[in-house]
What we know:
By secondary structure, chain A is of the alpha/beta class.
Amino acid sequence: MRNRLISLGTLAGLIAAIIAGCGSQPAAPTPPPAAAGKLNLDDWESIVAAAQGQTLNWYMWGGSESINRFVDEFYGVPLAERYGITLNRVPIADTVDAVNQVLSEKEAGTDPGAVDIIWINGENFLSLKQAGMLLPDWSRRLPNARLVDWDNPALAFDFGEPVEGYESPWSSAQFQLIYDSARMGEAGLPRSYARLLEWAKANPGRFTYIAPGPGAFQGTRFVKGALFELSGDAAQWVSHDQARWERWSPALWAYLNALKPYLWRQGETYPRDENELHSLFANGEVDFSITQAIAGAGPLIAEGLVPATARAFVFDDYMIGDVNYVAIPRNAPNKAAALVLANLILEPELQAAQILPEHGFGLGYAIDVTRVTDPAQLAALEAAQSRLGAAATPAADLAGALVGDAAGAYQRLVEDGWREHVLIGTGQ
Amino acid sequence: MMPDATHPPARRAAALLGRMVLGAVLLGPILALLLHASSTHWFFPRLVPAEWTLAPLLRQLGDPRTRAALGASLLTAGITTGIALLLGLPAARVLGLRTFRGRSLVLLVLFLPNIVPPLAIGMGLNVLLLRLGLAGSIAGVVLVHLVPVVPYAILALLGVFARYDEGYELQARTLGANPCQVWLRVALPLLWPGLAVAALFAFLVSWSQYVLTLLVGGGQVITLPILLFAAVSGGNPTSIAGLALLFAAPPAVAIALAVRALAAAAGQPARGMS
Amino acid sequence: MTRARQTFGIWLALAPALAVVGLLVGASLAYGVAQSLGLLAILGTSQVSVAAYRDLLDGTGPAGREFWPALGFSLWVSLASTGLSALGALLVAAALGRRPADGTILLMLNLNLAFPHLVWAVALGLLLGQSGLLARLAAALGLIDAPAEFPVLVRDRDGLGIILHYVSKEMPFLMLIVLAVLRTQGTEYDLVAENLGADGWQRVRHITLPLVLPALAAGSALVFAFSFGAYEVPALLGVRYPRTLAVLALESFVNPDLRQRATGMALGLIIGLVTLVVVGLGRAWQRAEVRHDA
């Protein structure tokens, strides 16, 4: 036994030595915030020249074949033809995988790293910003940044966190619901959270929503919408106020617990993500799904996830809209190519292409159409908007219901509170 | 146990039911994958798909990215399997045949990667490989694959060595065989079933690695699981099933080979193998 | 051969495997321990703190409130999965071990080893879900009218769907291990016992089991460890509450608040410790079993 202890000690010593050896390596010194490497953003031609011949490692969620194809075709091809950049799209199952890669590189002091650019928003943006691993002060200095309305709070704040030049917008999204026009008429649709409760009571077991939690922001967003409606005003949640939360959250839990017994499986469990909800909806287990796409149910029909008769709709108010972005890690190996892509994404003709359901992406514009001066480009953008198809929510409905997201601090409060008071709690 | 012999019909019925449940659970999911891979828009309550199509599957097969990933997977899993057997054979031999001080500790260390969840060591492994400058290369990916793979190889070999009779080797050597002949003519035939199973486990475990490949491969080494896990996150049954079947083909061949080795070891030629 | 030379030979044979596995895992583990104690270079903190463990064990903090139920749920799921897989593997292997080899049956039993757990869980859902293939069969036969009438076989509160997954996936794995031993062994003992009049169960219990116990026990330990530490299957085939420890740990790792990483690492290490304790108890039981049988 003593012998074993000795060898255990030796082993531990060995490991400690390895770790100490690793630890003695100096962490990468933080570069001054002004520099995007040695790139000069005020001289765009120099960046385009530097990008020539680079291979761009774009880490993005790769779960949708149609989005993958859209990216390869609409960005991969022009990157190669116009700029001599090879696109290496790295498909990941969850954006948090890219975040963890960059965080590991920070720990190891690896520079250059492996990731050039990430499709990102919300909590993953917050993680990397908090860790100081994002390239600062670049997005507002891109040539096409003039097409972006940076004063729009929905764009300048990502899940309540200031964007501050750390990421550049790709597309916009808005919370919507989906119903099957073959199963129910438009007249019978609930148009508010209050009416939804009545609808659920009349149709027990036919509604559910995604469980709020990290990585399932759609569920959190559904619950936030209920909070907005109950409190009668979305704008007051733009800043964090704990007292306000204490005042309104009991009503929120009461509402959700009133809904619970009429949910799918009596609220015993909830779908984990959008896929599971789409599948429940498509197979007739529930009557509503959700989407964030401006093209509504169109891309989902094209992908084969929901029946061709699926249609998107919104409540009359409190449908949260937001923007998703691309961000460049501080230690990206091909920063010039990443900047070129971020700028390319904002080209009006590509923005016009991304919203069309047949292209498989279906998310909305990141640019402000009124800032586009070229008549041909403007016409293309306006034409695309009129070709979203029957499966999309009418533009007027979307605009009428649009509200901004709540301050970032409410994310945790909603998620933790929901688990405690609604999922686990016996408030029914 | 119930007195079977007195109720042969009841026993036969129970055995039949057992076999049906076993078959449904082991083969039913594969049937579901086959049907979903060749259809789209297939929803409840349709028992058989209305829209048959092989287009997504063929598109997947024709995609150069898929083929490159298949190649990368075969390369990493093949090399990993070979090295794991080379590392595992001598270790399993002494662990199975010798008693020595520290044996339990060695077993503990070797099986540590399976005891501690991947969540807890994945990031540490990645940081370590980044510091060693091995991230982003096939070599680095093989090295991290060895961590979960070697224990499985040793486990399979251990079971065989635990019952292995060194007497045969000694006898052969007494009769004048050289070490090479002893290994080829005596040890290998005796170890063959265990070796086949060990190679199979090593291959399967390496073939299925997702997190370690993604982290250490750093987007430069893209294997099939990376495409497959991304597809699963998209929830489209047609895409998932198509990639899953493609993914499963090489391991299925490996399983068939290992099974043949096992069947042959029982002294019977394997019949009816597909 | 001298004793010293023999000892040297033993360690030489072990060195390559130990070097690769021991060093890589040892270093990663040390890193994990440091993270769980709040030493996070990504945040630049350097104060050692056991807060992550304390918050978990005394049940404060959001993750802590779920810790004990999650531990119980994980133990139930993993122990049931391991026990049923081992029993099934033993019985099937014993039945097959006596037959002339049939490659097709063996292949059918093992084919699902070709699929990763994540995909198998998806496929089980497609088969057994309330709108899955079986439910459609029931609807076609007129047994049910709507998906909700079909019994909940996966994503159930008791973890039966997760257990079913692990049994169907790990039973073939254990069966291969058992068969590898049986095939190396031959069937002589078994035939002798049969000639002496032993019935099926007695032969399995007193001949096959002692023969394969070391390998089966080691394999079962791996099955337990895997099912106790992996999150993919319970995340897919489980309910939102109760959750397993591994799913709880995963949530800490995807949490945007990087300070939660300490909690995630602490959970991961606790999972490893519990696994060690359970496997240790299993080994003690195995030794007792061998003595009892001898």
